[in-house]
Amino acid sequence: MPNELDLFQGTLDILVLRALSHGPMHGYAVARWIREGSDGTFRILDGALYTSLHRMDEKGWIDAEWGTSERGKRARFYELTPAGRAELQQRASRWDRYVSAVALVMAAPARA
Amino acid sequence: MPNELDLFQGTLDILVLRALSHGPMHGYAVARWIREGSDGTFRILDGALYTSLHRMDEKGWIDAEWGTSERGKRARFYELTPAGRAELQQRASRWDRYVSAVALVMAAPARA
DNA sequence: AGTTGATACCATCAATGTTGAGGTATACGG
DNA sequence: CCGTATACCTCAACATTGATGGTATCAACT
Question: Which residues of A touch B110 (CB under 8 A)?
Answer without folding.
Answer: 22-23
